[in-house]
């Protein structure tokens, strides 16, 4: 399982990817975020799915970018090339994988800004190579374990929020997922992109770096529940015919 989130904001992009790799009963760590950072050319790519598909797709994608870098002056062009590489990998590996009982299940989040983009962009690319652009209406997308972090994102994140606010929310969404899924864990890779900066800032954070935030959030959740007035719960119970079952 994987937790990768890309957030689109008016002021830039925030991306977080966990690093846990589960193979049978073994758990290891490996990078799931790829960053290409050059002059007037900044993008990140995160993947979920089989590790072998991720490694092959990124190798092909990186090679394609290096061969004709000047052509990729807009994000959609780079995403189209990634789509071509995914289809190539599918031609080479999909049949053999399915014969072995494995799914061709790679999903990609690609974000950044290239030379002729008026602003930063964020895309979701499906295993078939087709893609959609993430827009301000729903300014984030998760690939991998998507359910656990959605509540905090849907309740607290807006396109107009600051990068700092989005980073807080993304960390809480990761922490919620980590608590509920033993296949998502530290360390996490983080990318922050302020619009028109053409500089993708990369960081790696370990459990110790975020332990105070996680503990604060846990205690705040518990105290918030305790602060719900007892009278409100009593009103609910009064509407239940067999209220005694809740005593």
Question: What key attributes describe this structure?
Answer:
247 residues; 5-stranded antiparallel beta sheet; alpha+beta; Glutamine Phosphoribosylpyrophosphate, subunit 1, domain 1; 12 strands; single chain; 28% strand
How is the topology of this model organized?
Layout: E1 3-9, E2 12-18, E3 20-23, E4 26-29, E5 33-38, E6 41-48, H1 51-67, H2 75-99, E7 107-114, E8 121-125, E9 131-133, E10 140-144, H3 150-156, H4 163-180, E11 188-194, E12 201-205, H5 207-226, H6 230-238
Helix pairs in contact: 1-2, 3-4
What can you tell me about this protein's structure?
The chain is α+β, with helices and mostly antiparallel strands. The chain has one domain (3-205): Glutamine Phosphoribosylpyrophosphate, subunit 1, domain 1. The chain is built from 6 helices and 12 strands. It has helices at 51-67, 75-99, 150-156, 163-180, 207-226, 230-238; strands at 3-9, 12-18, 20-23, 26-29, 33-38, 41-48, 107-114, 121-125, 131-133, 140-144, 188-194, 201-205. It has a 5-stranded antiparallel beta sheet with strand order 10-1-2-11-12. Helix 1 packs antiparallel against helix 2 and helix 3 (150-156) packs antiparallel against helix 4 (163-180). The two termini are 39 Å apart.
> Count of helical segments?
6
SSE series = EEEEEEHHEEEEHHEEHH
The largest β sheet comes out as: 5 strands, antiparallel
Assign the CATH architecture.
4-Layer Sandwich
Strand content: 25-35%
**Uncertain parts:** none
Residue-averaged pLDDT: 93
Q: What is the CATH domain class?
A: Alpha Beta
How many strand elements?
A: 12
Return the domain count.
1
Estimated structural class? alpha+beta
Which of globular, elongated, flat, extended, rod-shaped describes the shape? globular
CATH superfamily placement: Aminohydrolase, N-terminal nucleophile (Ntn) domain
Q: Please, what is the oligomeric state?
A: single chain
Q: How much helix, percentage-wise, in residues?
A: 25-40%
Radius of gyration: 21 Å
State the end-to-end CA separation.
39 Å
Write the CATH fold name.
Glutamine Phosphoribosylpyrophosphate, subunit 1, domain 1
Lateral strand order in the biggest sheet: 10-1-2-11-12
């Amino acid at each position: 399982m994987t937790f990768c989130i890309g957030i689109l904001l008016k002021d830039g992009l925030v991306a977080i990817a966990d690093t846990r790799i589960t193979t049978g009963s073994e758990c290891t760590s490996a990078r799931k975020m790829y960053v290409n950072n050059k002059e007037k050319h900044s993008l990140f790519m995160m993947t979920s799915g089989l590790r072998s598909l991720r490694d092959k797709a990124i190798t092909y994608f990186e090679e394609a970018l290096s061969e004709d870098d000047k052509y990729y002056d807009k994000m959609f062009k780079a995403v189209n090339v990634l789509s071509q590489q995914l289809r190539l990998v599918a031609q080479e590996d999909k049949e053999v994988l399915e014969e072995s009982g494995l799914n061709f299940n790679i999903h990609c989040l690609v974000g950044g800004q290239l030379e002729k983009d008026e602003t930063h962009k964020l895309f979701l690319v499906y295993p078939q190579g087709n893609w959609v652009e993430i827009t301000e209406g729903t300014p984030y997308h998760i690939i991998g374990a998507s359910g656990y972090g959605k509540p905090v994102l849907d309740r607290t994140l807006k396109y107009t929020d600051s990068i700092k606010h989005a980073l807080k929310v993304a960390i809480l969404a990761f922490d919620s997922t980590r608590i509920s899924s033993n296949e998502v864990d530290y360390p996490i890779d983080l990318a922050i992109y302020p619009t028109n900066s053409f500089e993708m800032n990369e960081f790696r954070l370990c459990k110790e770096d975020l332990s105070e935030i996680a503990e604060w959030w846990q205690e705040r959740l518990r105290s918030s529940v305790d602060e719900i007035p007892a009278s409100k719960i009593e009103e609910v119970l009064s509407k239940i015919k067999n209220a005694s079952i809740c005593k």
